[in-house]
Design brief:
Two copies of one chain form a homodimer.
Chain A: H1 8-24, H2 29-36, H3 40-52, E1 56-57, E2 65-66, H4 68-91, H5 96-106, H6 112-127, H7 133-146, H8 153-168
Antiparallel strand pairs in A: 1-2
Chain A binds a DNA duplex through α3.
Chain lengths: ~170, ~170
DNA sequence: TTTATTTGTTTGGTAAACCAAACTTTATTC
DNA sequence: GAATAAAGTTTGGTTTACCAAACAAATAAA
């Protein structure tokens, strides 16, 4: 789509720069190095590579900003990250930190088609009355081992239908 | 868990070897090279690395088999792959080929906690009467753009409750 | 405005993956 | 059982990504 294919590493650098642009207005080598957990020397190499690809404005010893193209690509990556993290925390109900760690890696693995479908699924779940808050709650109980008993599973549908009818009035 | 941490590459080699063991009883360098789309020379290096880690039985010019440990690790990776692909095809309803491509990459990105939770979610969906076949069908319609209309959404719950009650008798 | 300090760059070196092509071993075929 | 083919290995070279440490530039402090 954007016509660019980046290594996971360069994608991460781009995302970091976007993050810094948002919070600090401008990205500095030192901050990028800290956020990525590498030495400053390693950053310089990555910046040259990103600049060659036309994704950042970079002159030695100057501030770093994203180009128009760079902003588009970084935004795309960031969108994947947010969608995936949202899925992991709100659907799978993973611990926020674990969700974040997994999203950081998954964002490089999932293509647009998959992420878009994930968005559609979340949307369907959120708008369909069958999968309302109580259904989500049910998953929390289910995964905590209360799956075998399912005490009120039998009447769940009926009760939900009643509640639903009530709200419609 | 298994106490081993492998690069994505070595994980892929291990998975390939498992695959070949299943179909051909034994893995040959040529076949591994073909399946992974690399030259034979590249395979030799990877095999040395896997042998050093005690994951495969490897002597130059001999057949390759997985050790007990290698089988365990490869099985773990393969499980992740199957779970993810299952999710992508049956929940997100992605095209099988697209699901396969994404699963191949995602299997290296998701940790055990995330995959386990995915399993639990699929299980919940499949056992909960609210998210039955018709709900899944609804997603297929929803994602095809018929989301705005939702013609029979209003009565869906009531009808489902009735059907459900019927089946219980 | 000198002198520190911080920040950024460069250089040399390592490790993982890969290729290309020469080479060796094993398997086939005549 | 020798000649040929196929399979596997080695060697030298490339790329990406990193570190460590020397160096240069810019900023801050004296």
């Amino acid at each position: 789509m954007t016509g660019i294919d980046l290594s996971e590493n360069l994608e991460d650098y781009l995302e970091t720069i976007l993050e810094l642009e948002k919070t600090q207005k401008v990205a500095r080598v030192k901050d990028i190095a800290e956020m990525r957990g590498v030495l400053r020397g390693s950053v310089t190499g990555a910046l040259k590579s990103l600049a060659e690809k036309g994704l950042i404005n970079y002159e030695p010893y100057s501030f770093i900003t994203l180009t128009r193209k760079g902003t588009a690509v970084a935004g795309e990556i960031n969108r994947r990250h947010r969608v995936i993290k949202n899925f992991l925390t709100h659907v799978l109900q993973l611990d926020p930190q674990i969700a974040e760690d997994n999203a950081c890696r998954m964002e490089h693995a999932m293509d647009r088609a998959a992420v878009d479908r994930m968005v559609a699924f979340i949307d369907y779940m959120e708008t369909c009355p069958r999968t309302d808050a109580s259904w989500i709650q049910g998953f929390a109980r289910h995964r905590q081992g209360e799956s075998d008993s399912r005490p009120d599973c039998k009447d769940c549908m009926t009760r939900s239908a009643e509640e639903h009818a009530q709200n419609k009035k």
